[in-house]
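Help needed: design a sequence for this.
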């Protein structure tokens, strides 16, 4: 019994440490650009690490960045989340072409709303450096929209 509890504790501690390590490699900030009705998702990426595009081929290996939005009360999303031009390279670790961002990237989501509200959701993402990848994590967000 004690061995089982110790094993569960060690697994939980390891997973918690890995999640904190991933979160320390990318720092997210969120905002609402009222003039353009756009949600802004800015990722600051630690040096030597990269964050994958939404459009990386999942058959190649890395997990693409993925945005999940909860229902926007009193409004709607317009189109898909956009991103700037990524870096495209052949990665021998994945034996295929990968597309990613370094240092900083800003994702944008156009919305339509006429009243004060908020939107929440999650960003699923994965980071790698030249020698290793950290497991994907979910970054939860809530953005207040003041009209």
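Sure. Designed sequence:
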């Amino acid at each position: 019994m004690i061995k089982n509890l110790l094993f569960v504790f060690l697994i939980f501690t390891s997973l918690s440490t890995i999640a904190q390590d991933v979160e320390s490699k990318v720092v997210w900030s969120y905002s609402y650009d009222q003039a353009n009705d756009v949600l802004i998702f800015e990722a600051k990426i630690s040096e030597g690490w990269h964050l994958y595009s939404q459009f990386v081929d999942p058959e190649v290996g890395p997990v693409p960045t993925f945005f999940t939005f909860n229902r926007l009360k009193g409004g709607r999303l317009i189109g898909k989340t956009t991103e700037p031009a990524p870096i495209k390279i052949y990665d021998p670790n994945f034996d295929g072409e990968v597309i990613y961002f370094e240092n900083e990237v800003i994702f944008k989501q156009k919305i339509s709303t006429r009243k004060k509200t908020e939107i929440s959701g999650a960003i699923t993402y994965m980071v790698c450096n030249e020698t290793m990848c950290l497991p994907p994590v979910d970054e939860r967000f809530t953005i207040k929209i003041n009209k």
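Residues 1-20 have pLDDT under 50 and may be disordered.
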